[in-house]
Write a structure and sequence with these properties.
By secondary structure, the protein is α+β, with helices and mostly antiparallel strands. It folds into two domains: about 35 residues; about 120 residues. Helices cover about 20% and strands about 40% of the residues. It contains one helix and eight strands. It has an eight-stranded antiparallel barrel with strand order 1-2-3-4-5-6-7-8. β4 and β5 form a beta hairpin. The radius of gyration is 25 Å and the shape is globular. About 20% of the residues have low confidence.
């Protein structure tokens, strides 16, 4: 009888230990991943009065929900002119927040004057505060003057491997 009681107590202690360890590990892992999450929804507005469809033209960010995209100073620089292919702006872009903080990407946007969703932009990496940045946004406008455009989509920051000197 004493043997059965000891086995039962040992089994209960063993189960309690395993359950406690599992809970501790899983809650610790959840808090680590939650605190290091660098992803979410991206909502940006850009003002394009300086954009005339030429290579080198730019738009200026006027609102952003991401701290790295600084309102008023961050520019979207377009590398190619609109119209190649016909009816589209299909350009490499640089999202430049200054001081060596920039992200590289590509936008393909309908070049005509239409309201609603007009294109898509993707970002694949960057430097400085944009290291590891990636995003996919729909480009849209409700501005009848076709100066203000919205980016709505998702973003993330991937871990960047250390570089050797």
């Amino acid at each position: 009888m004493k043997f059965k009681v000891r086995i039962t107590i040992f089994a209960l202690l063993l189960v309690a230990g395993v359950v406690g360890l599992t809970l501790a590990l899983s809650s610790g892992a959840a808090s680590v991943s939650a605190s290091s999450a660098r992803e979410g929804e991206l909502h940006v507005t850009k003002e394009c009065s300086q954009y005339n469809g030429n290579a080198g033209d730019f738009c200026t960010i006027t609102s952003s929900n991401l701290a790295e995209i600084v309102v008023g100073t961050t520019r979207v620089n377009y590398d190619q002119a609109a119209g190649i292919p016909a009816g589209l702006l299909d350009s490499n872009i640089v999202l430049d927040a200054g001081n060596g903080n920039w992200a590289v990407g590509r936008c393909t946007i309908y070049a005509g004057n239409i309201l609603g969703t007009v294109g898509v932009c993707t970002f694949s990496d960057g430097t400085g505060q944009f290291a590891g940045f990636h995003a996919r946004v729909n480009v849209s406008t409700s501005d009848p003057n076709f100066i203000n455009y919205n980016w709505d989509g998702t973003y993330g920051f991937s871990p960047v491997p250390e570089r050797e000197n």
